[in-house]
């Protein structure tokens, strides 16, 4: 069961706004489906370079630009995240709870690219985030 109806946006201590839950989400639960515009690798590179678009996910088949989504573009990085991303199909991904998430907790993932760790504010990285 997806938890999208139980998610909301508010100011984040991590960066800007974030996605939070109003209910407990058990480990292994599907938090939400990640959808967006399916684009080619060439278009992905262009958007990242020319538009500074950082709201792009990828799976085995495609790149998915989520910059126009209502929620997922507010998904913040954490080196100790409570969620992870898994392939769903050629046009979407699943956001899944890594562990139990309590009401009021921010939903996070590990962005998993080197530049983010250089500016991360978590206790593991000890510097400031610039995402």
List keywords for this structure.
131 residues, mainly beta, Beta-clip-like, 3-stranded antiparallel beta sheet, 10 strands, disordered C terminus
- Gyration radius, rounded: 14 Å
For the termini, the CA-CA separation is 30 Å
Helix/sheet category: mainly beta
Average pLDDT, rounded to a whole number, is 82
Ranges where pLDDT stays below 50 over 5 or more residues in a row are 126-131
Biggest β-sheet description: 4 strands, mixed
What does this structure look like?
- The protein is mainly beta and 131 residues long.
- The protein has a domain at 4-32 and 68-118: Beta-clip-like (Beta Complex).
- It contains two helices and ten strands.
- The chain has helices spanning 41-50, 114-118, and strands at residues 7-11, 17-21, 30-35, 37-39, 56-58, 63-65, 76-77, 83-89, 92-97, 106-109.
- The strands form three sheets. The protein has a four-stranded mixed beta sheet, with no helix packed on it. A three-stranded antiparallel beta sheet has the order 3-9-8, with no helix packed on it. The chain has a three-stranded antiparallel beta sheet with strand order 4-6-5.
- A hairpin with a 5-residue loop joins β1 and β2.
- The longest helix is centred in the middle third of the chain and has 10 residues, at 41-50.
- The chain is globular and about 40 Å long.
């Amino acid at each position: 069961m997806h938890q999208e109806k139980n998610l909301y946006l508010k100011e984040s201590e991590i960066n800007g706004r974030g996605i939070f839950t109003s209910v407990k989400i058990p480990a292994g639960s599907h938090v939400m489906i990640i959808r967006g515009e399916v684009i080619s690798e060439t278009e992905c590179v262009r958007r990242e370079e020319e538009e500074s678009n950082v709201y792009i996910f990828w799976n085995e088949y495609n790149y998915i630009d989520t910059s126009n989504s209502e929620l997922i573009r507010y998904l913040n990085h954490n080196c100790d995240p409570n969620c992870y991303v898994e392939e769903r199909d050629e046009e979407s991904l699943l956001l899944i709870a890594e562990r139990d998430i309590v009401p009021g907790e921010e939903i996070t993932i590990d962005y998993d690219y080197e530049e983010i760790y250089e500016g991360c504010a978590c206790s593991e990285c000890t510097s400031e985030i610039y995402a």
